[in-house]
Amino acid sequence: MKTRTPSRENFHLPVSGAVFDKKEALKARTHVVNSITELIGNTPVVRLQRLARTNAAEVLVKLESFNPSGSVKDRAAYNMIRRAEEKGLLRPGSTIIEPTSGNTGIGIAMNAAARGYSAIIVMTDNMTPERISILKAYGAQVVLTPVAEGMKGAIARAVKLREEIPGSLMLQQFENSANPDCHRTTTALEIVEQTEGRLDAFVACSGTGGTITGTGETLRKLIPGISIYVVEPKGSPVLSGGKAGPNKLVGTGPGFIPKVLNTKVYDEIVQVSDDDALGVMRELARREGLLVGPSSGAAVWAGLKVADRLGPGKRVLCMAPDTGERYLSMDVF
Q: How many beta carbons lie within 10 A of that of residue 151, not counting itself?
């Protein structure tokens, strides 16, 4: 497979003029910063050891739990808020309202606290107590909607709140271009830098579609020949043309196809059952020391299957969206 290895110090993305500066990335982690938001991104990648399989490709995992509030959604939350500020849609004291499965809400709550905004987070009532407690700790107001109504119900409630609260703003992560944009200009560039451009497959779950879309599009530009796999819950195979349904892979399978999702960016859809995802999630904690959430287990389960298919000498990278600490009350460990 042909690869393009960027400069070890910095390189330019051929779209939107973004630049990955290795020195600046390191500086943010080793020097005093002025805001917690400066520590978003530049998350580490670890190579699986004890879960690695003989005669299979090596499997790498990008640990998004190293973001300040503990998930990949810090990236999108920050970018959506910054873009709203640039457009004059947010002013000191403004209220941000967002329907979310939890992680985006936590990212928004953290960013809002750091930048002087109020936050109202709307979620289905099956969210774990940990997520609700974290949101409240950041000062956010939490509004719960019936799980039977799914994410569509949460969105409808958020829209109503926006209409009722003067000057409030919905970031609308499912259709906000700032969501995938942050992955085009940060996540993907980090991956190319960390792998030195040597990567054969990229695997990620799809919730809003931001990560798989933004990261996938840029990886295709920078690593010719790469294969991209999107993961969805077997119990809610909407991307595959099936019906929405209940599942335990929190943050994936919203029950509809989001506007920001580029359905042409991936080569294959991998369906993962709750049992398989949770089984690998537990194995990651007990055999690799990686305490991650159910969607991470799903991505790595799929990544291991891809690694078996590709064989030795190849390399697969899986996105691990968040920490497992948010799921301890689910009794899945």
A: 24
C-alpha 292/C-alpha 87 separation (Å) is 36
Q: Catalytic residue at 234?
A: no
Distances (CA, A) of 57 to 1, 3, 44, 80, 311: 14, 17, 20, 36, 5
Confirm if 224 and 3 have CB atoms less than 8 A apart.
yes
Is the entire prediction scored with pTM above 0.70? yes
Cβ atoms 209, 250 nearer than 8 A: no
Which domain CATH number covers 28? 3.40.50.1100
Q: Which of 62, 295, 296, 314 is catalytic?
A: 295
Question: Cα(179)–Cα(172) distance, rounded to whole angstroms?
Answer: 9
Q: What token pair was written down for 173?
A: 């992560």
pLDDT tens-digit series, residues 68-77:
999 999 999 9
323 is in an annotated binding site: no
Sorted by sequence, the CB contacts under 8 Å of residue 160 that are 6+ apart come out as: none
Q: Indicate if 225 and 303 belong to the same structural domain.
A: yes
Tell me which residue range forms the domain holding 222: 10-71+180-330
pLDDT tens across 288-304, in order? 999 999 999 999 999 99
Would you state the pLDDT for residue 14? 40
- Phi first, then psi, for residue 228 (nearest 5°) are -125, 130
Q: How confident is the model at residue 25 (pLDDT cuts 50, 70, 90)?
A: low
73, 234, 248, 314: which one is catalytic?
73
pLDDT at residue 86, as a whole number: 95
103 is annotated as contributing to ligand binding = yes
CA distances from 113 to 28, 43, 166, 246 (A): 20, 22, 20, 33
Residue 273 annotated in ligand binding: no
Domain identity same for 30 and 52: yes
SS3 readout for 55-104? CCCEEEEEEHHHCCCCECHHHHHHHHHHHHHHCCCCCCCCEEEEECCCHH
Q: Is there a single domain that holds both residue 59 and residue 99? A: no
Q: How far apart are CA 286 and CA 99, in angstroms?
A: 33
